[in-house]
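Following up on my earlier thread - several people asked me to post the actual chain instead of describing it. Fair enough. Here it is, all 306 residues.
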Amino acid sequence: MRARLRRFAVALFVLPLYLPGQCRAELRAEGLAPGQAVPFGASITFVLERQWPIGWSAATVDEAAWAPLLGEFVNAGFVQDATQSTEQRRYTVRALGVGTLPVIAVRTRFRGPRGESQELVARSPALPITSQLGEPIGELEWASGMRQVAPSRFWLWALGAGFAALLSLGWWRSRRAPIPVVLPSAPLVGHLPQHAQVLSELSSLQLPADGDLAALAHYYERLADLVRDYAGRHFGVRARVCTSEQLVAAVPVGTAALQQCLQHCDFVKFAARRPDQAAHEAARSVAIVFVLETVPPAARNGEVVA
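Reply from S.P.:
Thanks for posting it. Predicted structure:
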């Protein structure tokens, strides 16, 4: 009878170590109630809390899940008691869009002492982001308190009056000054189209050496600037003030290659990823593919397109 009681007591102590239901993963906004509004431009601290029983282990967190929010890792804490282990990881996110903050899903896997596993998904809360400016509401807003607003009629009248004054001044000067004779100039030598110039700069972009973090950051920052500036000039969008998702949505062609290139750059800049040499070349290759997809086939071969 005593032996049975001892086995029963041991089973009660060991059984929680093998229950997959003891694992937990939660993603919450620190200091904010569910559904609480966040002012535009504010910094939000997210806490990813994971718990697992003694004897179990937790896999590393996929930092790429934070790319849609441009989250930055802050710190991590680990606490262990007699029954379970608890880990808390903190990330900061800037609220840079009026509306609702996108919801992300962070997957984490736990493994038990007998080889069993459990996968849990922690989702971020949907937080509304409120504007800090009055009406009229424009399309873009910056953390400095400025937003693109619709032009008023007064400015339209002022612009029209100024244009009329310039036309009058030009007409008056043309009647007083002799008409200059302009000789045809020779064509510019070495002048390249936009796509040829950016392709040349992309090809000459030097790959960073392994372990050189400064060269790594410079390479992907320069790669993103070249692609964004070309897209802005070619399609007439304000690429420098758009997020990666906004720029991909505004470009009519080459969206897949542009999205892949910007994702490579965002992972290095915001998720602290350290890719290898093959990934460096792949990021530059998709940038070149994006430029070529925006150019007609005849212009790729140096022909003049009417």
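Residues 13-18, 141-151, 179-191 have pLDDT under 50 and may be disordered. That should answer part of your original question.
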